[in-house]
């Protein structure tokens, strides 16, 4: 019987990049014939996704010594402690931890979780059999924390999502002769949306007056930044 390959995440939200990748990887593992589940901190699972993942404490009785547990390392979470306590084969997939300074003024609770995440990342150095990062930049960050032999595994995503039919009403609203400039990303300080807005202002004044700037992304947890 093939060993199970399970994943642990700090949270799980619809449209989130790490959540999407975890689901894509789970599908791949299951296609390979492995039992595969996603375990996440129940306090940070969005309501609409509760049927998709399982509470992280469940993995303590589910994961066996021959199984593989993959931790998506991204922010401070009790899931990290659960992962560290598991007696099985382990792998870490690092997604970067935003420097806490970006959230100190707008969301101290998030800044605290980011500091916890950095401390946990350092504590987990060389704790797993395999350590991966989703970019060379992130791999270098782990090496600076004391990790060795960090492999780069680019983000995995479900291509079928890209083939989904666009919303006709939205297309009709935007197909009005204006040039659309789209910025996709969470509305948080480290994304520097204000820089994109300034660049767009130059474009609109000097290149194409008939244009609009569109930001697609959530400001949840960073509402103060939205109104700054």
Feature tags:
single chain; 228 residues; alpha/beta; seven-stranded parallel beta sheet; two-stranded parallel sheet; 36% helix; globular
Write the layout of secondary structure elements.
Layout: E1 5-9, H1 17-31, E2 38-40, E3 54-55, H2 59-62, E4 68-73, H3 78-85, E5 89-94, H4 108-123, E6 130-133, H5 136-144, E7 150-152, H6 159-162, H7 168-174, E8 179-184, H8 193-206, E9 211-216, H9 223-226
Q: Structural class of the helix and strand makeup?
A: alpha/beta
The termini sit apart by 56 Å
Strand content: 15-25%
The residue fraction in helices comes out at 25-40%
Low-confidence stretches: none
Could you say which overall geometry the principal axes of the C-alpha atoms support?
globular
How many helices in DSSP terms?
9
Rounded to the nearest angstrom, the radius of gyration is: 20 Å
Oligomer category: single chain
Q: Main sheet?
A: 7 strands, parallel
Adjacency order of strands in the biggest sheet? 3-2-1-4-5-6-7
For the residues shown, what is the average pLDDT? 93
In total, the number of strands is 9
**SSE pattern, N- to C-terminal:** EHEEHEHEHEHEHHEHEH
